[in-house]
Amino acid sequence: MKTTRIAVLAYDGCMGMEIFGLCDTLLVANRVAQALEGAASAPLFEVTVISLTGADATAAGGLRIGTRRAPRARPDLLVIPGMELSDRASCLQPLRRLAPETAYVRRAFAKGTPVAAVCVGAFLLGEAGLLNARRATTSWLFAADLAQRFPEADVDAGALLVEDGGVTTTGSFSATFDLAMHLIGKAASPKVRRAVARMALLDDRRASQAPYIDSRMLARPSGTFGAQVAGWLEERVAEPYDLKALAQVFHVSARTLLRRFKDDAGISPLAHLQQARIGKAKLLLESTSQSVAQVTAKVGYGDVATFGTLFKRLVGHSPAEYRRRFKTAARQ
Question: What is the pTM of this model?
């Protein structure tokens, strides 16, 4: 089997764990494959940490990472780790200090190299224009910011890994391991993939970051039209959603309300309301003994089955499954 050559682009301010977690997991995969399928077989992966200059990169927190200069030969995949973000506003502005890296990523993709970003590395792909008209994800904490910064991208805040047209994006920083398992699944047999997952204590069935979304931590627009609408909706999560009536409350047309709210929040009012309802439901399931039917009613749904379907679609578990998995953890 052909060895997959992977280049990981390090730069000042990147998240070191996203680099080392990927490199070490793929190294383990090489060793496992050789043990299970013959020591003479070619390694599954050849991973090189690169930078534009070949000098050491200083990762977030001050850790120094040795690199090689970006090679002339085209790798089979270029991986971009995320960066430390000092505040929410920073991800809504052009990443000027990373302009050389952005240009490099853009050129590499134009020459036919597939790219993958871990966590908020998706913002660098957006800067390079690679998310336009593509599905993408990032850390759920910054997904709305990604959608606002790059409105031509179709951002799925709940997805753990999205691959679209040679561009792969992942959820939050531990998703570097999910990216590694994804790559192992492509290059190795199911036996090797299962063995790596077991040795590394990785959940190779994890498919969504939705169960971990805490709506209380999400960005809230302040002093804007969208913030006013969002606040009004959140105070009335148990009330039916009526776009026309909502527009009348704010003295605009339904079309104007949708446009202005999307400009401010990056999503539709209904999507925001659903997030608020699901967030409240998760909190009730974690912290109370109310029945699923009672929780359903408290978040504005009259039919338990309908709510259960929505909850499972957005969270990845049924309400009962979510309670079993997260209520104990919430008490600790």
Answer: 0.78
